[in-house]
């Protein structure tokens, strides 16, 4: 057994760095390759290479959809609960009855809150008039 270990050590010493560690490349060639790759990525823009850009966009969308599908599949109980809640809310909204006065009131409140939140978001990106900010003070 000791002989077998000795033979392995001798073989290991006899190998040069390229054989032992795969293809050995020095850091300057790696830096050059990284620089070329970076330049290629910067040249892939919609107005210079529209077909390649759209191809990469489509492939990325497919990858993202696959990841989302996988995540949703692993959370089936949460998705099912959400869909059941959504179905109950839709049924409550469309079915006539005494509850419709409350549904309309909640709808008005929701739309009012959404309006003010939307104004706040628009203002934060510089698209607001400032009127809603004045009204809040």
Polypeptide structure, described:
The chain has about 140 residues and is an all-alpha fold. It has helices at about 1-15, 15-20, 25-45, 50-75, 75-95, 100-125, 130-135. It is flat. The termini are far apart. The mean pLDDT is about 80. Keywords: Membrane, Transmembrane, Transmembrane helix.
List the helices and strands and how they pair.
Elements: H1 2-14, H2 17-20, H3 27-43, H4 50-74, H5 76-94, H6 100-124, H7 131-136
Q: Concise description?
A:
By secondary structure, the protein is mainly alpha-helical.
Question: Characteristics of this structure?
Answer:
single chain; 137 residues; mainly alpha; 80% helix; flat; transmembrane helix; membrane; Vacuole membrane protein 1; transmembrane
């Amino acid at each position: 057994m000791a002989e077998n270990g000795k033979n392995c050590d001798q073989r290991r010493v006899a190998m040069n760095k390229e054989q032992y560690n795969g293809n050995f490349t020095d850091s300057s060639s790696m830096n050059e390759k990284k620089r070329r790759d970076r330049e290629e990525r910067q040249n892939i823009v919609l107005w210079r290479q529209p077909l390649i850009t759209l191809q990469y966009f489509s492939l990325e969308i497919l990858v993202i959809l696959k990841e989302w599908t996988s995540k949703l599949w692993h959370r089936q109980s949460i998705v099912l609960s959400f869909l059941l809640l959504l179905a109950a809310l839709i049924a409550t909204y469309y079915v006539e009855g005494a509850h419709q006065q409350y549904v309309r009131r909640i709808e008005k409140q929701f739309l009012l809150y959404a309006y003010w939140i939307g104004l706040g978001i628009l203002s934060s990106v510089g698209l607001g008039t400032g009127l809603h900010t004045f009204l809040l003070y």
